[in-house]
Amino acid sequence: MSNRQAIRSRILSPPARPRWHKSAPEALRRAARNGEPASAWELWLGHLATRGTPIPLARLWRGGNALLWAAAVGGSGGSGEPQTGSETARKARHGDQDAQSPPGGRSTRSLLQRLPLTIDGNSGCWRQEAARWLADPRDAYPDARRALEALGWASALAVAADGFGPDFWWRLLDHLVGLAEDAAGLSLDRDPLVHQLLGGELALTLGYLFPELAACRPLAKTGRGSLTEGLLGLVDGGGLPDARLIGVFRPLLACWTRCHLIGEQFENGCASNRAQLQYAWAIRAALRLTRPDGSGVFAAADGCCNDRELFDAALRCGGDADDERIAAIALPGRTAHKHSGEEALPAAADHSAWAAVTVLRPGWRRGEPRLVVAYPERQFHLELSQQKELLLAGGWETLVRVDGEPLQPVGSWEELCWVTDGDIDYLELGIALSGGARLQRHAALAREDQFLFLADAVIDCPGTTIEYRGRLPFAAGAGFGQAAESWEGFLLKDRAAALVLPLGLPEWRAERGPGSLRTAGNALELCQGGRGGAILAPLFIDLKPKRITRGSTWRRLTVAANQSIQPPEVAVGYRIASGNDQWLIYRSLAPAANRTLLGHNLISELLIARFGRDGEVQSLIEIEG
Fold this sequence. Notes:
The protein is an alpha+beta fold. The chain folds into two domains: 3-344, Glycosyltransferase (Alpha/alpha barrel); 350-624, Beta-galactosidase, Chain A, domain 5 (Distorted Sandwich). Helix content is 29%, strand content 26%. It is built from 15 helices and 27 strands. An eight-stranded antiparallel beta sheet has the order 8-9-10-11-18-15-14-13, with no helix packed on it. It has a five-stranded antiparallel beta sheet with strand order 1-2-3-4-5, with no helix packed on it. Strand 8 and strand 9 form a beta hairpin. Helix 9 (166-184) packs across helix 10 (192-209), helix 12 packs across helix 13 and helix 13 (273-288) packs across helix 14.
């Protein structure tokens, strides 16, 4: 029987006579054995109303409605993030608008707000509402919204049983048990969020709320197994989520936090010891992956929610003293102590080749610049924040043509280099292209110098002419202000601004050269052309607010070897000035060799350096070939 058929059978067929666990009151079990369903139901209602344990979920949540944690108000679409898993992505590709929205959209939120989640509330009669919910065809392939609604109905069964009537109460319970059992048997890869909400949280919730029922009691163990699988399989050792799931990491954290609160009532918790340690690291990662407005990176543009209640609960459950101090300075609406010891806090930057996620940021404060990168398989997504504003958000699209023919990716992104120290955070990735060419992508965020270097190097091209086009997507409300006579411009949004210098283009538009930097649709487009087997397409983005209005300039420098000038397909060098600060950037595009630049002998593949006040070159990072 298929999953769809099994679910439909549970909805249309009456549930079997309930089997009681031995922990149920003797009088209740006796009435059931004697064939007295009306008496058994009244005894069950009385037991639910007077039992001392389990503690009602509302008390575990300390007020509020925890099912609404990390739930967007409504709408769909985000900033181009990887989807919530292979099944959700499949639905999105086939036009399922619900699949493209974060869990907890408008109808779901309305239902969860109306469901009786506290004993003191007015339960009313929920039979008609539940009947409509059971008839919903979404059960064939439950999504995250459906899963949250199922959790709401499970809570309602415990605190408002008299609003359903006996036949319908058992029918709804049987359906929820089936959802939990089916989800626990699914592959975690199919839809990780739904797997955790149904196979993990719903199973744990039913086992917690109804230990007197033989069908529910073992579900606590089932849920514990699913949650252990999720915590160990969806985040790395430092808590960073798989890049494909980064857009739903906050809802996953909400699920795990609710389960942790329930798990505190069990001797063995909600997951294995190792998995619970992963949960603690996931809290740190969630702080690291929080935008200045408090929402999660790559979340829907209209889902700006700072999730204060979620973080309060998560910090109580698994945070440490460092997490508390980080939250005080990284989350909106909180006050950090004057002596918060920021210099002693763990590094804000992080990188995981397993997760395909990198965070480049000098510190934890909301106003500091940060770049978040997610690169699952052939995708590449980024978010750039500056002065508490999101400037860039979405997929970095690239088109490379060699002799007029487009080159296609033939592999996945791979880490080539990751460096983080007191000067700089530097990431280099590579991906193979058709024809034997390679694309190497650089992202360097200078901490004290406050600039971002983004560049694509296309090397080993099989032809003679190269055309490059790269598009960086604007965040909602952001744009690009182009200078009138030069190729520079400003990324702009409300109170934030960043100066963009296209180093591979001549400074002045009047100078002839193949290329441009302009707005194209909702993106900043850099176009460059070249000859030979390689090209570098670099952008220097000045992120220091007080410096970007003081004038800037850049020049391509002469690179020489054996007293001969080297063409740009061999190596390039640039000198950049902004305000009173100056930098030097060098990139070799051919095999490393002894070359000279401004009188310096270089055998490195990459050099990013500043000029000191004495004119000496001070390396920020140097990568040897």
